[in-house]
Write a structure and sequence with these properties.
5 strands, single chain, Rossmann fold, 12 helices, elongated, five-stranded parallel beta sheet, 60% helix, 299 residues
Length: 299
């Protein structure tokens, strides 16, 4: 499903520019627009767009009021504020009321596209997490009849998938590799103990090459596996950092920001995402993998 947009802007020229940017760059579907704040509030509550582009200075009802009113009942609507206002106090107030990003006028096309794509990534991640949680609730509702106990490995797979879903990376190419690495390590842990075995990631990558070749006829190499795992774990870091920017008290952010990553690197990534630093965060693959193992073993 495409990302849906609603535009609140009293300047028709700016409104049309934003529409063209979204349509020309295939960023999503525009499901409504308005130049009146009061009407916009009612429309947004009914239409429930994923992202709202809203001007700060509007007649009758200003942008901050729109954000706070909508957020009272629709917390999942994401707001990007666009304005020529330069007052730090006003911008700070806008963030406190729930905007995700502030773009200064005059409109810079590249900046608008970059911000929207970044926000879309977070919106899609939230949808994945929500759908996963809804699926789990549905399973619990219908699975009221006792069934045969799942195998240990299958149970571990479910737990790993849950963590990866919370990190927003279930669709990444390296997820299968991460799953196999974790299952290999768990299999080689001493029975009844939580002590991790001694291992080298390079050896496990080689093991996976052989396994994929023998069981699935897939030819690959250790470098390809390593790159897939690294890209997926970096994506997880980016998602966690974005959660922390959006809400430092987010349960997933609090739970994983220091157990799967070095928190200093999470902070570096948060600063990078805000544009406050040119140095992004880094991932320690072993810490990431072993953090997931510790998490699922503690359940």
């Amino acid at each position: 499903m495409n990302t849906s947009f609603y535009i609140v802007e009293d300047d028709k020229v700016v409104q049309n520019i934003l529409k063209r940017i979204i349509e020309k760059n295939d960023l999503g579907d525009i499901i409504g627009s308005s130049n009146d704040g009061g009407k916009a509030i009612e429309d947004i509550k009914i239409l429930k767009p994923d992202i709202v582009l809203v001007d700060l200075l509007l007649p009758t009802v200003d942008g901050i009021k729109i954000v706070s009113k909508v957020k009272e009942t629709h917390e999942d609507v994401t707001f990007i504020m666009i304005s020529q206002v330069s007052s730090e106090e006003m911008i700070s107030k806008a963030y406190k009321n729930g905007i995700e990003f502030f773009i200064s006028k005059p409109i810079n096309v590249i900046e608008v596209i970059t911000v929207i794509e970044k926000i879309k990534e977070k919106v899609n991640m939230s949808k994945v997490i929500q759908s996963f949680e809804d699926a789990l609730k549905g399973i619990r509702r219908i699975d009221h009849v006792p069934t045969e106990k799942k195998s240990k490995e299958h149970s571990n797979e479910d737990k790993i998938e849950k963590v990866l879903a919370q990190l927003g990376i279930l669709g990444e190419a390296g997820v299968k590799d991460i799953m196999e690495i974790i299952l290999w390590i768990i299999e080689h842990m001493e029975e009844g103990k939580n002590n991790l075995p001694k291992y080298k990631l390079s050896d496990i990558y080689k093991y996976l090459c052989d396994k994929y070749s023998e069981e699935e006829g897939i030819s690959t190499n250790t470098s390809a596996i390593e790159q897939r795992v690294r890209r997926s774990s970096i994506k997880a870091l980016k998602n966690i950092a974005n959660m922390g920017i959006e809400n430092p008290e987010n349960e997933i952010f609090v739970k994983y920001s220091s157990t799967l990553f070095n928190f200093k690197e999470v902070r570096n990534q948060m600063n990078f995402a805000r544009g406050e630093s040119d140095q992004s965060g880094k991932v320690n693959i072993k810490k990431f993998i072993e953090g997931i193992i510790i998490d699922i073993k503690d359940e």
